[in-house]
Amino acid sequence: MRPSPHDPPPMMVPFAAARPLPRDKYMTHEEVARFLRFVKESRRRGARKYYVLFRLLAETGIRIQAAMGLRLGDVQNGAGLPTITVKWLKKRGGEALQVLVITDKMAHLIRRYAKGRTPSSRVFDVSDRAARYAFNRFCDDAGLRRYSPKALRHYHLMEYYRASGHDLRLVQDRAGHASPVTTTIYVATLQEDHERALEEMPDLP
Asked: Are the C-beta atoms of residues 89 and 42 closer than 8 Å to each other?
């Protein structure tokens, strides 16, 4: 979708503050698609649960700890797209609540997986340790390096930055970052975007 001329201008990016993510900290779109395909088709125990969990991380960018605390009642129908309300711990103590828009398909997957449960029931009845172990096993199955589940968060926010027309403010809000400086890590990582822009510039004589 092209930005409207009435939209506020994108936030100016303090490039000097950005430090690119190491390559082993994020997954590419091709890797995420391959990973999720292997999870979806896997016959491993709990594969269906992990498919919904890992797809949620890839589609929202939430941290795995926030996904663990998600309850069925946190998935709501909005005026447009559905939303989820996630809770996460602040670095300096206390909790924060965040409401995120999700796709209709993601909401359907969650509700179908958790069918028959009460609104107060947790969607994912699994420990953080077990989820991380399963993530590594599925990386092995897909022939990928052993990423951390946080690589799905980084993937989502990098793709969201591209899809938003490089709107740092929107990505900062999606990520739940207190400072836009933290969000600039995704700007610095997208070196291919800089290369693509340079290639589109007119030639000089």
From this structure: no
Q: Cα 161 to the chain's mean position, in Å?
A: 11
For the domain 19-200, what is the CATH code? 1.10.443.10
- For the chain, percent of residues with pLDDT exceeding 90: 67
State the chain's mean pLDDT as an integer: 88
Report how far residue 99's alpha carbon sits from residue 78's, in angstroms, rounded to the nearest whole number: 11
Amino acid occupying residue 81: L
Helices (H), 18-127: 29-41, 47-60, 64-68, 104-113
Q: Could you tell me how far CA 114 lies from the centroid of its own chain? A: 21
- Distance from C-alpha of 193 to C-alpha of 202, rounded to nearest angstrom: 16
Nearest Cα neighbor of 56 from 183, 156, 171, 164 is: 156
Confirm if 144 and 34 have CB atoms less than 8 A apart. Answer: yes
3-state class (DSSP) for residue 59: helix
Domain ranges of the chain: 19-200
CA atoms of 175 and 62, how far apart (whole Å):
7
Name the pTM for this structure.
Answer: 0.85
H or E element, residue 97 = strand 95-101
Sign of the torsion formed by the C-alpha atoms of 66, 67, 68 and 69: positive
Sign of CA dihedral 81, 84, 155, 180: positive
